[in-house]
Amino acid sequence: MEKRNFGLTGNQLKIIAMIAMTCDHVGVQLFPQFLWLRIIGRLAMPVYAYMIAEGCRHTRDRKKYLLRLLGMGALCQLVYLLAMGSLYMCILITFSLSVILICLMDAAEQEKTAKAQINLAIGVLSVFFVCTVLPDLLPHTDYEIDYGLPGVLLPVLIYGGGTKGLLIGLALVALKYGGIQWFSFLAVPLLLVYNGQRGKANMGKFFYWYYPAHLVAIYGIGLLL
Questions:
Q1: Do 42 and 186 touch, CB atoms closer than 8 A?
Q2: For the chain, which terminus, N or C, has the lower number of CB atoms within 10 Å?
């Protein structure tokens, strides 16, 4: 994306998404009667998906980027499993699958070899399996990929199609889940004023660690109420 001297930086967008995500999870766990918290929360996923696409586009080391994302996701899943016996896969796992697909797509396009094409086909089929087939094979659990296959595809579509990909991806997510998910389109104006710059401060570690920390805090408060 072309960098501009005006608009919102990546850090500012992530802070907005972080606040929206916190409102959403507070609404789910503590105050389910307040629908407006869930509506605010619809801003989070599109912004994070956009930043995942940007991360894939600008990171110097995609392998390290993926391992960091996947590692934090695995940590969250361990907490879910130990605390609640849950197999529900968090958004970090969703976006890890997105990054894997983006890497395989770029390799197939750049290398133009049979091996790269086969790897991409295997990757696509594997993602389809874990998102749409595996939940049916585990009917007595809560296993599901957060936001399902459309959620995995959203950063991929943004990476390949920019704003058009964003709109198509959001429509796919909203068509699958319906209801308040249509409010996720409210994130589009925010993303249209993204200036293509990360921001002065390096807040990457803070954003990664905030995710599990706020979930633990909300879960702990819920136990006390």
A1: yes
A2: C
Q: Which letter does DSSP use for residue 43 in this model? A: T
Token pair 């392998």 is found at 63
Kindly state the tokens that stand for 2: 């072309």
Hey, is 87 helix, strand or coil?
A: coil
Q: Which residues, at least 6 apart from 189, have a Cβ–Cβ distance to it below 8 Å?
A: none
Work out the number of other CB atoms within 10 angstroms of the CB of residue 205: 9
Q: Which of 46, 89, 67, 59 is nearest to 192 (CA)?
A: 46
What pairs with residue 84 in β-bridges? Answer: none
Walk along the chain (225 residues) in steps of 10 and give the mean pLDDT of each run. Answer: 74 95 93 95 96 92 93 88 86 96 95 94 97 95 95 97 96 96 96 88 82 86 84
Question: Looking up tokens 């409210």, which residue turns up?
Answer: 186
Q: Supply the pLDDT for residue 3.
A: 62
Q: Are 45 and 51 in contact (CB under 8 A)?
A: no
**187 in helix, strand or coil?**
helix
Cβ contact 49:170 at 8 Å = no
Contact, 150 vs 176, CB < 8 A?
yes
